[in-house]
Amino acid sequence: MLALGMPGAHAGELTGNAEAGKTKVAMCIGCHGIPGYRTAYPEVYHAPKLGGQNVTYVEKSLKAYASGDRRFQTMHAIAASLSEQDIADVAAYYAAQTAGSKSSTLK
């Protein structure tokens, strides 16, 4: 990457694109976009709001669900279907959200 004039970038390092992430969050909104939503299957689980979360937190959480280190059947299935770039993009999208964002899930 240094040869491309991008100091500080490491080979294999992904940069999330919030605009691309906007097109990848449809399956997230069904649970995380509903105020106070709790799942009923396979167990009762409160779905937290994602808008405004730290990018690193979202990335680590999705990777942990994908690997099975964090356990919740629905989230495992969703996270396991995402590529590394998808995870970076989704994390960037949610980290960019504020309460005033047009498509904010904080509202």
Identify the notable features of this structure and list them briefly.
107 residues, disordered N terminus, two-stranded antiparallel sheet, 4% strand, 2 strands, mainly alpha
Molecular structure report:
- With 107 residues, this protein is mostly helical.
- 43% of the residues lie in helices and 4% in strands.
- The chain has five helices and two strands.
- It has helices at residues 18-22, 26-32, 55-67, 73-80, 84-96; strands spanning 38-39, 45-46.
- Strands 1-2 form a two-stranded antiparallel ribbon.
- A hairpin with a 5-residue loop joins strand 1 (38-39) and strand 2.
- Helix 3 packs across helix 4 and helix 3 (55-67) packs antiparallel against helix 5 (84-96).
- The longest helix has 13 residues, at 55-67.
- The protein is globular.
- The model is unreliable at 1-11 (pLDDT under 50).
Structural class designation:
mainly alpha
Strand content: under 5%
What is the helix tally? 5
Helical content class:
40-55%
The SSE order reads HHEEHHH
Largest sheet: number of strands, sense, barrel closure: 2 strands, antiparallel
Rg: 15 Å
Query: What is the averaged pLDDT score?
Result: 84
Alpha carbon gap, first and last residue:
39 Å
Strand neighbour order, sheet with most strands: 1-2
Uncertain regions spanning at least 5 consecutive residues: 1-11
Shape: globular
**What's the β-strand tally?**
2
